[in-house]
Amino acid sequence: MKNLNCCCGEKAIYWRRYSGQRFCRDCFNQYFERRVLETIRKYRMTRKGERIGVGISGGKDSTTLLHVLNKLKPKLGISLHPILIDEGILGYRKSGIETAKNTCMAVGLELLTASFNKETGHTLDELQRTGEQKPCTYCGVLRRKLLNQTAIEGDLDKLATGHNLDDEAQVVMMNYLSGDIERLHRLMGNAANPDMIKRIKPLSLIPEKEVMIYALNNNLRTSADECPYAKHNHRTKVREFLNTLETDQPGVKFSIISGWEKLINSMPPRGTNILACKVCKAPTARDKCRACELKEEIKIKMSAANMGLAD
Ligand code: SF4
Ligand code: ZN
Fold first, then answer.
1. CA-to-CA distance for 297 and 40, rounded, in angstroms?
2. If pLDDT is split at 50, 70 and 90, which confidence band does 62 have?
3. What ligand is nearest to the CA atom of residue 125?
4. CA of 147 to the centre of ligand 2 (A)
5. Strands 158-160, 283-284: parallel, antiparallel or unpaired by DSSP?
6. Would you say the CB of residue 251 lies under 6 angstroms from ligand 1?
7. Are 151 and 53 in contact, with CB atoms under 8 Å apart?
């Protein structure tokens, strides 16, 4: 009869289709934490003594990341500094903020915060009502800027984010679909630049489903609320498409990532001409960074709206 138990003999709680392995609760936790450590070492993500920022939202990915890094930090010799960005999304962000605060308090870490409202004078809800971009455009550009800015102010060496394998496969696929080879190249990591904090993604080789199982296994309190603007996001369609593919062909998300790595590594190195934004000095390929462009556009739109000139 087929053995449905974990290799240790305990009752399995998870069957990993793409490898055929079954895991009990304890073996799954060990596997998961080992996998994160291996990923950090494989890509030389951290060095002893570094101050690592951790982008945290209260969701399962970032909460799991903080929990695992907190366990691994004695082995890695790093310190952790969680950062939360409040975009200002009514009915969504509040529970995430509460959860993130509680998580940081439980592990004794001080939470650094920044908000769209402080940076631009407006919440994301206000921006999407008056501005001409999609909410995810404001959100992505401003969140990236604020994470970087807060990490610089906090004298941090790197910034860890909770992106998992699914997120990575989605973004690679989206760039294939738009034929954006330059962005596919840039996804490999930002160029050495003292004004740009290097991003690391310790969960990038772990499927989303396994992150969820780890969070449940360890009773991590996470916010399950979904952003009301997610439906505007092209990524939602790509996610559904990749999930369908994965059901038919287990392991396809890993193949997408390894194919992309091979492709980029076989290409000649790209010379990136990085300039300093003439407004905020942030690194950019143009004379003004995208965040400053958006902030300018927001200012014009908001004052037109205040004068009753908006179309
Ligand atoms: Fe931001 Fe869009 Fe994600 Fe909502 S769905 S959190 S607006 S990027
Ligand atoms: Zn700028």
1. 39
2. very high
3. 1
4. 14
5. unpaired
6. no
7. yes
Q: Are 32 and 212 in contact (CB under 8 A)?
A: no
Identify the residue whose C-alpha is closest to ligand 1 atom 7.
136
* Helix spans in the chain (H): 25-42, 60-76, 93-106, 116-120, 124-130, 135-153, 165-177, 181-186, 208-217, 234-248, 252-265, 290-306
DSSP state of 197: P
Could you say which ligand is closest to the alpha carbon of residue 295?
2
Other C-beta atoms lying within 10 Å of the C-beta of residue 204:
20
Record the pTM: 0.90
Q: Label residue 190 by pLDDT band (50, 70, 90).
A: low
Neighbouring C-alpha atoms within 13 Å toward the C-beta of 38: 8
In this structure, are residues 103 and 63 in contact, taking their beta carbons and an 8 Å threshold? yes
Q: How far is the CA of 105 from the centre of ligand 2 (A)?
A: 33
